[in-house]
Every structure is written in C-alpha cells, then in structure tokens.
Design a protein that fits this description.
Elements (H helix, E strand, L loop, with lengths): L1 H22 L5 H14 L3 H9 L5 H18 L8 E7 L1 E10 L9 E6 L3 E5 L1 H9 L7 E5 L22 E2 H4 L3 E8 L7 H13 L6 E5 L11 E2 H12 L5 E7 L13 H7 L2 E10 L1 H22 L3 H19 L1
Parallel strand pairs: 1-8, 1-10, 3-10, 4-11
Antiparallel strand pairs: 2-7, 3-6, 5-11, 7-9
Helix pairs in contact: 2-3, 4-8, 5-7, 10-11
C-alpha cells in the first residue's frame, strides 16, 4: 500500500508540473519539452505522435496550448455568468483534407472534448454565413445551400453540386467512432485582415453574437506562418490537455473548409459517402436566407405572446415578459 501511495503521489506531482507548464506564459524549452512528452503519452494516434516528434523543436504545439489556455482563463473570468459545465466552442480556421485517412476517434483524444462536429460534406468549402450560423447555433440542416464556387473554372451548374443522400444531421465524430475519415489540416486566419473572419464579425454586429455557453475561437497565431498546415488532431489534443485542469467539457464545432488540399488528389468518394457525404469538386456550402430570417420571426412570435399576455391578467403578462426576455437573450446573448 505504501508503494501504491508513492505512485499516486508521483502522478499528482507530475500533473501539477504539467498544469504549471500549461499556465506559464513564457515557456522555457524544458516546459515545451515536458508538454510534448505528456502529449505523446496522452495520444493514441501514431500519426499525431510522429508529428509531435518531428516538430519537437517547433513552438507550434506550445503556442496552441497558450491560445487555449488564454481562452480558459477568459471562461474562468466569466464564472459570474453561470456557465454550465457543458460549453460549445466554435473553432474558426482555414482547412483542407488530405488523401490519407484516420479514425474519426483521433479527434477525441481525451474525455474533456465530448464531441467534434463537422458541418459540410467532404470535399466541400464552407462559406462565412454558414460559419456564423454554426457559431450561434442558428444553422439547421434545412438551411444548407450548395453552389458552385465562383472563379475556379467549374462548368457544372449549381444543381449538380447538390450532394446525393445528404444526412439530415451533422457529422458527429463521436458517432463516427473508428470509421475512417480524411486527415484534416488547419491553418491560421490571415492577419491583418481575413475576409472570412471579417464577414463573421459583420454578421455578429448585425444579427447578434453567440449566446451564453457558446464561445467562438478564431485561429489566430501571429508567430505562426499562415500557410502552415497543422493536423487537426494536434489542435484537439492541445485543447484537451488545457481542459484537463478545468471543470468544462466541450463540444467542438468546426467551421473549416473540407475541400481537397490539392486538386490532383484522388478521394475514395464511395467510402466518404458511406461515412457521411461527399460533393463534386468546387462545391461550396452556405446558408439560406431563412436562417437569418428565423431570428426576426422569433422576435415577432415573442412580441405576439407578450401582447397576448398583456391583454390577459397580470400573471400572464409577467410570464410573457419573461418569455420575451429569454427570446432576446437566446438570440443576442
């Protein structure tokens, strides 16, 4: 029993050291090395471990940890807003898929991320309006609109870009389990200006920001080359490690393009269609006008209920006022 106690103490001391490394803002080389070693031990995917080994001298992983640690500190500051333990995080980045495959479960390295959700079919771009809908929770499967990406030389009309047998739900990596999916890579948003991010900010100003328990993270790493392709499992691993030392469990919503990294790539379309769905080249996904229109119909509906309550008794009026307040909070945070 004494030996077992010593082992437990050893584990706690190591976890305390990892926590300290994560929270340290100016990480030393030893701090970065400690994090890398712990990440390799926590990761089951050999391809991710290989990337960590090959990039042992790079600061990319520690920068990812710093970015997510900054986010966690911001969440901690908002404890007065009564965040629940379950938090929806929308990760906004540029993305693409490779022709190699991996198990979907590689995106869920630790229980701190309960699910990772993809929104567009494979081999499909994601437009900023749809990304805004994902971040706010407004986008529903019925709002999907597929089109031919302009300026790419495609001669197929928009209707040819509509995928066949499109599921009436989003692509959950938790449900996918060990099914094979393409390796996904992400890269940071471009600075000082990024067109996709500017569009999302415009929509936030016009139609409202994500509500409580919904957090949007733009992938901005000034010290990292915007052309750097980082495997998505590396990103989810960094987030998982940071969340180990918090009470939060996250559903990660990915607003990234899932088009081919290279046009010369050949995809196993049949396998991708079996896993979820796959589109022809040069397909983009946006949202219908009904997505944003639903915001205003919700306001009108709430106002009608409020007026109805006002014409009734005081108790009904108070209930209608509460429903109206909740409607506005849900829509505008």
């Amino acid at each position: 029993m004494e030996e077992e106690l010593k082992e437990i103490q050893k584990i706690f001391r190591r976890l305390a050291k990892i926590k300290c490394c994560i929270e340290t803002k100016n990480k030393s080389r030893d701090d970065r090395q400690t994090l890398l070693e712990f990440a390799k031990e926590s990761c089951k995917d050999e391809a991710v471990r290989l990337w960590l080994r090959d990039n042992a001298e790079s600061e990319i992983f520690s920068k990812l940890v710093e970015m997510f640690q900054f986010l966690k500190e911001k969440i901690d500051e908002e404890e007065k807003n009564n965040h629940s333990n379950e938090v929806d995080i929308t990760f906004v980045a540029h993305g693409a898929i490779r022709d190699s495959m991996m198990p979907a479960s590689c995106l869920l390295p630790l229980p701190t991320i309960s699910d990772v959700v993809l929104y567009s079919p494979w081999n499909c771009y994601l437009e900023a309006n749809a990304a805004y809908g994902i971040a706010t929770g407004k986008l529903q499967p019925v709002h999907r609109v597929f089109y031919c990406s302009p300026g790419r030389g495609c001669k197929s009309p928009n209707e040819k870009h509509q995928p066949e047998d499109l599921p009436n739900e989003w692509n959950s990596m938790k449900k996918a389990g060990n099914q094979k999916i393409p390796n996904i890579v992400v890269s940071p948003l471009r600075k000082p200006k990024d067109g996709a991010w500017e569009r999302i900010e415009f929509l936030e100003d016009k139609h409202g920001k994500p509500g409580r328990n919904r957090i949007i993270i733009p992938f901005i790493l000034p010290s990292i080359d915007p052309e750097e392709d980082i495997p998505l499992p590396v990103v989810t691993l960094a987030l998982s490690l940071v969340l180990m030392f918090s009470r939060f469990q996250v559903v990660l919503h990915l607003t990234i393009c899932l088009g081919k990294l290279s046009r010369r790539m050949k995809l196993d379309e049949n396998t991708l269609k079996q896993q979820y769905s796959c589109t022809i080249d040069y397909t983009g996904m946006t949202s219908s006008e009904k997505m944003l229109a639903s915001t205003f119909s919700s306001i009108i509906s709430a106002v009608k209920r409020f007026v109805w309550g006002a014409e009734s008794n005081a108790e009904a009026q108070e209930g209608a006022h509460e429903r109206l307040s909740k409607a506005f909070k849900a829509m505008f945070g």
